[in-house]
Design brief:
Blueprint: E1 8-11, E2 19-25, E3 29-34, E4 39-44, E5 50-52, E6 60-62, E7 68-77, E8 80-86, E9 92-96, H1 108-114, H2 121-139, H3 154-164, E10 170-173, H4 181-194, E11 201-204, H5 210-221, E12 226-227, H6 230-233, E13 247-250, H7 259-267, E14 272-275, H8 290-301, E15 304-308, H9 317-327, H10 335-342, H11 345-356, H12 374-385, E16 391-392, E17 405-412, H13 416-419, H14 425-429, H15 445-457, E18 462-465, H16 469-482, E19 487-490, H17 496-507, E20 515-518, E21 533-536, H18 543-550, E22 562-569, H19 573-584, H20 595-611, H21 617-637, H22 639-647, H23 650-665, H24 668-680, E23 683-688, E24 691-695, E25 713-716, H25 719-724, E26 729-730, H26 736-746, E27 753-758, E28 768-777, E29 795-799, H27 812-818, E30 820-821, H28 824-879, H29 887-906, E31 908-919
Parallel strand pairs: 10-15, 10-16, 11-13, 11-14, 12-13, 14-15, 17-22, 18-20, 18-21, 19-20, 21-22, 25-26, 27-31
Antiparallel strand pairs: 1-2, 1-5, 2-3, 3-4, 6-7, 7-8, 8-9, 23-24, 24-25, 27-30, 28-29, 28-31
């Protein structure tokens, strides 16, 4: 296959690209530009999914200047084709293939049929079904939400839909610990990729969470991220190594003090950047940390940005402001102004509460009509004055499904060896720290208690968390080597792979560890809800870290109440801190999102009491408890209430969930998959209710079927079974197996030409009918989402001998039941006799389809202008009162409206399948 610059080629894999032109040829690669969609792609010359476009005499061609010709002759010069033809003025013109219009239409089914290339009638039926299902997918309001292997939780589905549909979303996902921010981010990324809003994604997470993210994205969303670490970047690379992957996962630490790497990362060009544990980024009004500056520069160059943090305000208003200014620096430019604006949130929250109770406030903001129904007024207040456009935060109080927490105190005598030591606050909280070896293990009563308690718990698993790696290592060695308890250690001294192995060993139900001993890094990001016993060997001084620790077990999906065990030395700083957390902050009974703020409020009084408790301690506990109750009340009634209203609208979420469930309850996917397997030669065997075993065979149509392993793949269509059985692939219409298999059908010739016979009473033998399937072909960049207004819209026509369309009288399904196979020699003989009739009926069918197309395009443009125009007007009105609406969003909507209109008008018909039917 020889490529020459200037030649025109079309892609098998993606018909929506239009007509491409070769712009560069290298020994092993060829680069093709697709002007219709503004994309340039490079392929390996061996096996490129490309076909050279060669028109034949009699074909209609169009040039970029709008000239249309009927081809009369073709000549090839220096590898390029010259077409000579006549235009509508009967003038003769010669044009080079370079001048051809990129919006090319190819009608290969008719050419195949008339040249005797037939497929099975079953393949024809599969092709028709494929386009019907694709059309249904494009029209679905839950598109992009079906493909994740997750429980359909309302707050997650709502956020994924609300954020995932935006152009270049820039939001802070700040759900409380255990509500599934990682899943929300995955659902958003999956939707953005599936719908073409984003193609290049960068995810930055702390190093200990790299493999967890890698596995979660693959397991739950079928997203194959490339892990970039020191080893990957050490490999030789031609050019920018980040250009080699579309989905990249890495740690911010990889770039600190590495200006060359930072520049490569910035130059790679990302559509969406995701940053987990964003509260770790260091910022103050006086100075920014290197990690913050890196993300800030990335944020300024990339259109989309997702920040994930479970602690949006606990670290203080300045820290919260620092995250928001990454999202929109023009909106959040002044910390002082931000603090003033926050004072207004209580007013809007009180107003929303009045409206929920059916009362219309007298002091409604300007522009709001008191006659508007209360639910709409609440939406307008949230839209115009709330914070939910850039911030989403669901709380445990608003989301059901969490277990109860139970604290178990285990007082232990203070050992003489510790009592003799000179103690400061650090060694008071962690008395083993002054020891440079593990000799403390021999006399610390917490160790003896831990050993006995774990043996009593058997076979129940328990997660042990302590502050420091040295403590974790010493404890695990003792449990494993001296006490004979199956255990594993998880601490920062291990490599990422070693940590993952330790976590997997702990998760193994049959042969796994009974306990996992973690340093503080085990309290962030990891999920261990399969266990329900948590042992806090010590207590952190930061209430947010305590909540993070408890949150490893106290999560949605936990099947048991969480049992929190705290062994402590009587009279120690840990004893006092435990009392303050329990009786002052009530931190063990329920989550407190303002824990760090409360700690800062009382730190001046609390810290001296930890070193030496006095008679004032009881008053401190009482004052802390009163302040905590008042703070929780203010959060519920104030800003948190506003966020809850905007972070999850239960009715809308339930409609989306119902739509997903409806699609999953149908047998359409099962029936379609079985038809696919039959067509491609894949063996399909019943496994259990709602599950199949798929195996490759020697008779497979192609050497590859997507996501089918050599040893076979077990699939299920049941979401609950998919969540329970990791060994099964959970199939939805959005699973890559289905998406790629459907692409293999519609982007190839499979089933696009067929011939058959039927017996019909009252119709003379030898009567010919032509069954045609047309779709709307709109070549447009994916990010415009033109298919939302102009889907494939399959048009089936069944033209009889008189040119009448009988499609409504003889449905496709019924015709498939009646049609019979025609032997090849007979079929070829028939074709020779009916070529003229086929051309005539094709002309009639095309004429009827074009008449329908005109109405479809008119309606599509009107619907597009109505929907996007209304959104544009809404955002413009909102921007007058809510600066969180970015000008870029308005500009993009203007651009999108006009671009969509251009591509809709350029849309044409594409003949997808043709079947000749003769009566016998």
């Amino acid at each position: 296959m020889e490529y020459i610059v200037g030649q025109r080629w079309v892609s098998h894999a993606d018909a929506q690209l239009g007509l491409g032109v070769v712009v560069e040829v290298e020994p092993r690669r060829v680069t093709v530009n697709f002007p219709a969609v503004g994309e340039e792609r490079t392929y390996a010359t061996d096996g490129a999914p490309l076909t050279r476009l060669r028109f034949q005499e009699g074909d209609h061609i169009s040039t970029t200047n709008g000239v249309e010709l009927i081809v009369t002759s073709i000549e090839e010069r220096q590898g390029l084709l010259l077409y000579t033809g006549t235009d509508h003025h009967e003038a003769t013109l010669t044009v080079s293939e370079l001048e051809l219009d990129a919006y090319v239409q190819l009608t290969t089914p008719q050419q195949r049929l008339l040249n005797g290339h037939f497929d099975k009638n079953g393949d024809f039926a599969l092709r028709v079904a494929t386009f019907e299902h694709l059309d249904r997918q494009q029209r679905s309001p839950v598109r992009g939400l079906m493909g994740s292997r997750t429980s359909l939780l309302p707050h997650q589905v709502y956020i994924a839909h609300e954020v995932g549909q935006r152009f270049a979303p820039r939001v802070l996902l700040a759900d409380e610990v255990g509500l599934g921010k990682t899943i929300e981010a995955g659902m958003i990324m999956h939707q953005q990729l599936l719908c073409g809003r984003a193609n290049r994604l960068l995810v930055m997470v702390p190093e200990p969470l790299l493999h967890q993210w890698l596995v979660e994205m693959l397991r739950r969303f079928n997203l194959h991220f490339a892990l970039f670490d020191e080893e990957r970047l050490a490999q030789p690379s031609d050019g920018n190594p980040f250009d080699s992957e579309q989905l990249v996962l890495c740690s911010p630490q990889l770039f600190l003090d590495q200006p060359e790497r930072q520049q490569q990362l910035l130059d790679a060009g990302w559509d969406l950047v995701v940053v987990d544990e964003a509260h770790h980024l260091h910022w103050s009004e006086e100075e920014s940390g290197a990690d913050y500056r890196l993300v800030e520069t990335l944020a300024s160059r990339c259109p989309g940005l997702l920040l994930l943090t479970a602690t949006p305000e606990q670290l203080g208003q300045a820290s919260h402001f620092a995250r928001l200014r990454l999202l929109d620096p023009s909106r959040f430019h002044s910390l002082e102004q931000f603090i003033e604006e926050e004072k207004e949130y209580r007013r809007w929250s009180d107003m929303a509460r009045q409206l929920e109770a059916g009362e219309v406030p007298a002091d409604l903001p300007a522009g709001l009509d008191a006659a508007t129904p209360p639910p709409q007024l609440i939406d307008q207040i949230l839209d115009r004055h709330g914070t939910g456009r850039v911030l989403f935060r669901n709380t445990r109080a608003a989301v059901s499904g969490f277990p109860q927490r139970h604290l178990h105190r285990h007082p232990l005598p203070y050992p003489e060896e510790y009592a003799l030591a000179s103690l400061d606050l650090e060694s008071g909280l962690h008395p083993e720290r002054p020891y440079h070896d593990d000799s403390w293990v021999a006399f610390d009563p917490r160790v003896e208690w831990l050993e006995k308690f774990l043996k009593q718990l058997r076979p129940a698993k328990a997660l042990v968390i302590c502050a420091h790696a040295d403590t974790a290592v010493a404890l695990e060695h003792h449990l494993h080597l001296r006490a004979g308890i199956r255990s594993a250690a998880f601490y920062e001294g291990l490599s990422i792979v070693e940590r993952d192995r330790a976590a997997a060993y702990f998760a193994d139900e049959i042969n796994g560890a009974q306990t996992l001993v973690c340093s503080e890094i085990g309290s962030e990001g990891r999920n261990f809800q399969f266990a329900h016993h948590l042992i806090l060997f010590d207590l952190p001084l930061n209430p947010d870290l305590l909540e993070q620790r408890i949150g490893r077990l106290d999560r949605i999906g936990q099947q048991h109440d969480v049992q929190i065990h705290v062994p402590y030395l009587e009279g120690s700083a840990q004893h006092s801190l435990l009392d303050w957390y329990e009786r002052g902050l009530d931190a063990f009974s329920e989550s407190c999102s303002a824990g760090h703020m409360i700690f800062q409020r009382f730190a001046e009084r609390l810290l001296p009491q930890l070193e030496k408790r006095t008679d004032d301690f009881e008053q401190l506990l009482a004052d802390t408890a009163d302040f905590t109750v008042e703070t929780r009340r203010e959060l519920r009634e104030g800003r948190d209430r506003l966020l809850e209203l905007n972070s999850c609208k239960p009715e809308q979420a339930q409609q989306l969930i119902d739509g997903i469930r409806e699609r999953e309850a149908s047998d359409q996917l099962l029936n379609y998959l079985e038809a696919l397997c039959e067509a491609f030669g894949v063996d399909s065997e019943f496994h259990s209710e709602g599950a199949l075993i798929l195996r490759p065979t020697e008779q497979m149509l192609t050497g590859h079927f997507p996501y089918l392993r050599d040893e076979g793949t077990t699939v299920t269509f049941d979401r609950d079974k998919g969540l329970a059985r990791e060994d099964m692939a959970f199939l939805t219409w959005e699973h890559p197996m289905l998406v790629e298999a459907m692409d293999m059908v519609h982007s190839t010739e499979l089933g696009n030409a067929a011939i058959g016979t039927i017996k019909l009473k009252g119709i003379p033998p030898g009567t010919m009918m032509l069954e045609c399937l047309f779709t709307v072909n709109c070549v447009a960049p994916r990010e415009l989402q033109v298919e939302r207004f102009l889907p494939l819209s399959p048009m089936r026509l069944l033209v009889d001998a008189r040119g009448k369309d009988l499609a409504h009288l003889v449905p496709h399904a019924r015709l498939n039941e009646l049609v019979e196979r025609v032997k090849k020699p007979v079929a070829l003989a028939i074709i020779k006799q009916v070529q003229t009739d086929v051309d005539a009926k094709m002309a009639l069918a095309t004429s009827q389809a074009e008449a329908r197309l005109a109405d479809i395009l008119t309606e599509a443009e009107a619907e597009m202008r109505s929907a996007l125009g209304a959104e544009r007007e809404r955002l413009a009105a909102l921007r007058e009162v809510n600066p969180a609406i970015r000008q870029e969003e308005l500009d993009h909507l203007d651009y999108r409206i006009e671009e969509c209109a251009v591509h809709i008008r350029h849309a044409g018909l594409q003949l997808q399948a043709l079947r000749l039917i003769l009566t016998t």
